[in-house]
Amino acid sequence: MKQSLQSILIWLVGIILILVLFLAMALLSLVLYPFDRKRKLVHAQCFWWTDALIALNPYWKVNVSGLENIDHRKKYVVVSNHQSLADIVLLYKTKMQFKWVAKDSLFKIPVLGWNMALARHIRLERGDFSSIKKVYREAGEWLHKGVSVLFFPEGTRSDNKGIGEFQNGAFKLAIKERVPILPIQIDGTKDAIPKGSWRFTTKICCTLKVLPAIETADFPMQDFARLRDLARAQLS
């Protein structure tokens, strides 16, 4: 009974927080539109949201390390392994400005998808080649504006066998734009959101570790696979 009541409260608080986040982001989008074209202040609202969401869930313990490897004056192509939707909650703990590439279906989720659109994250329609080209063009435009872009290069969530094979696009983009790769390692989020049930029953320890950036200036374009494999090895 106690776990059921706690779970109801966690979900209720989560819904309230995401609604408050939407109102804050929508209001700032309107008021600051002429002054915040990159939606940096809008994006920054997710920082307090993720802190509150984690602090108010007694089943989540989150450890963050390696923040000293982030130079907030620089732009990066950020790459992270992918275990669950909770990954993005942890990634906001970096307090970085970024646009992340997300599948189109997430943008269609009420409130959550609206928040993603307000922050101007990058929409990917899987299986649509023209959409893939558009994603990399849009990502390049954000890098030119000084804003980092974030990819889950596995393209889907990891299975129980570990990190999947990486797709090439993020690494080609980093070499083309001469932008460092910033690897971020996530663990423990696979079970952070209950599967097949609404009840939280197990305490989960999630970790986020920011690894040292990989400079790309000395990588010719034909060496994108070496860069890809280097990043994957660091995240494994």
Would you give an account of this structure?
- This protein has 236 residues and is of the alpha/beta class.
- It has a single domain, classed as Glycerol-3-phosphate (1)-acyltransferase (3-Layer(aba) Sandwich), CATH 3.40.1130.10.
- Helix content is 42%, strand content 16%.
- The chain is built from eight helices and seven strands; from the N terminus they run ααββαβααβαβαββα.
- It has helices at residues 2-31, 40-55, 87-91, 104-107, 112-118, 129-144, 169-177, 224-235, and strands at 60-65, 77-80, 98-103, 122-124, 148-151, 181-187, 204-210.
- Strands 1-7-6-2-5-3-4 form a seven-stranded mixed beta sheet, with helices on both faces.
Question: What's the SSE blueprint?
Answer:
Layout: H1 2-31, H2 40-55, E1 60-65, E2 77-80, H3 87-91, E3 98-103, H4 104-107, H5 112-118, E4 122-124, H6 129-144, E5 148-151, H7 169-177, E6 181-187, E7 204-210, H8 224-235
Parallel strand pairs: 1-7, 2-5, 2-6, 3-4, 3-5
Antiparallel strand pairs: 6-7
